[in-house]
Amino acid sequence: MAGTKRSWEGTLLRDKDTQADTADVTMSDQSSQILSIFGTFRDELDEHHDRRERLTKISRDITALSKKIIFSLQRVRTLNAPLPPNITKETTSRFAQITELFKTALPDITAPLHKHRYARQISPGLQEFIEALSFHHYLETQTLITIDEVRARLLDGAVPVSEEDYLMGVFDLTGEMMRFAITSLSSGVIERSEAEAESNIMYPRLAAPQAGIVFDLREVRSLAEALSVPRKHGWMFRDLHKKVEVMQASVEKVERAAYGVLVRGSERPAGWMPDLSAEQVEVA
Question: Which compartments is it annotated to reside in (predicted)?
Answer without folding.
Answer: Cytoplasm; Nucleus
